[in-house]
Write a structure and sequence with these properties.
It contains eight helices and six strands. By secondary structure, it is of the alpha/beta class.
Length: 183
């Protein structure tokens, strides 16, 4: 019986499949519930060929700019989060905008927690989620990041970010008259 000997390249490829990778995701202007579905796949390891529902092969996900998530206006006002302290009269309801103002990572954390599903491995998967309200990542985490998760929708540019040339070349519906007074 011959032994199967792997080359160094194939061995490194195999180790990469089993290792835990660190991914970064920019949540700026992204819907937290769509983002949560994407992030939960990486936390569970569904992006790997060795995935099994009972195996714990997920990766770490670092999410930046959680303070700049975007939801439709009605969603901010009418999405309510329930919390109970397990004491009498300890039930409280908090709207999403208020929860986001208190802790700018909490809305996305709750969305990812729900997207991970009712699994026995949910808590271990959530331990591999690292949320930051801005784009400042600690050095000890930054050195581990090896890939980036693509955003679901493009981030629009602000009007102040366009150059004068781009603004001049933008198609106009009509020309203002020379004697028009702007107030």
């Amino acid at each position: 019986m011959s032994k199967l000997i792997l080359s160094k390249h194939k061995r490194a490829k195999q180790w990469a499949v089993f290792s835990r990778l660190w991914h970064v995701y920019d949540a700026k202007w992204q819907n937290p519930f769509d983002s949560a579905d994407l992030i939960s796949k990486y936390l569970a390891g569904k992006n790997k060929p060795i995935f099994h529902t009972l195996s714990d092969c997920g990766d770490h996900v670092v999410v930046i700019n959680t303070s700049e998530i975007a939801m439709p206006d009605r969603e901010w006002r009418y999405r309510i989060y329930r919390h109970h302290t397990m004491y009498g009269g300890g039930l409280s309801y908090t709207p999403a905008w208020e929860l986001q103002n208190k802790d700018s990572t909490k809305v996305l954390w709750k969305a990812v927690y729900k997207a991970c599903g009712p699994s026995l491995l949910r808590h271990t998967r959530m331990e591999r989620l690292h949320l930051f309200p801005d784009d400042k990542i600690p050095e000890e985490i930054k050195v581990n990041i090896s890939s980036q998760i693509r955003q679901l929708r493009p981030v629009p540019k602000k009007l102040s970010q366009y150059t004068e040339e781009e603004l001049e070349q933008f198609p106009k519906l009509f020309e203002w008259p020379d004697d028009y007074v702007k107030v």
